[in-house]
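Researcher: Next entry in the queue.
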Amino acid sequence: MKLSEIYKNNDKLIFSFEVFPPKNANTESLFAELAKMNEQKPALISVTYGAGGSNRNLSLEIVKELKNHLKQPVMPHFTCVCSSRKYIEKYIQEIEELGITNILALRGDEPQDIDVCYRDFKSALDLIEYLKKHSELEFAVAAYPEKHPKAKTFDDDINVLYKKQNLGAKVAYTQVFFDNECFYKFYDLCHKKGIKIPIIPGIMPITSFNQLKRIVELSGTKIDSKVLAYFEKYKDSKEDTIKAGIEFATLQCEKLIDFGAKGMHFYTLNKAQSSVEVIKNIT
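Model: Structure for this entry, 283 residues:
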């Protein structure tokens, strides 16, 4: 099912999950987690790959497993940084031959350990323009409730999302956030700009205090000091931290639903339990 069909006039909450190729290339445990996610009948499972296309082959194997064996709608990530036009053309052909109809179009992170970095595509907008001309794929895009780190201003960032919409983006999935007020303000600004595509909140149930600190440090995501202190209380108990993460994410989702969110996109870190429990709590 294409993105335009998934999110068209659907009154039912729409759930999706994100996974990534495991570093050790051992996919057995990941496939077991995917089977648990699949029981929730998600609209999509998105599959990432590394900077500059690293892990792309393993990512495609996961995509094939999802599509052919789990019979699950799948949305590969499609990044363009340091990629040549020839490389992008070949990747389009590969995923279309698999029968994939949806992708998440991103600039991606620039790899640190390659000899040649092509500059054919400088941004996600360049990639999207190319996809429109050379494929039948429908595409989702990224959105940033707390502003993209490289955007000069919030207005500039929202203008980029507006351009993505006008080029044909069907839905936007946000970067993970923990302060709903950021999403509410961002959504209102998007609406005033004329952005009408669904903006789906990115949710990550916390399973580790150290994980939470890394996310905040690396992405600049805001988190209230009281919330940080709340999770710090459980830092020595994995079980209690997971429980607290489910409770926090459940409350976060309930408030987003009240606000009018059409669905949730769960960043699972390749583990099904917490995201599945949150979905059970809110449905």
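Model: Residues 238-259 form the longest helix (22 residues).
Researcher: Noted, moving on.
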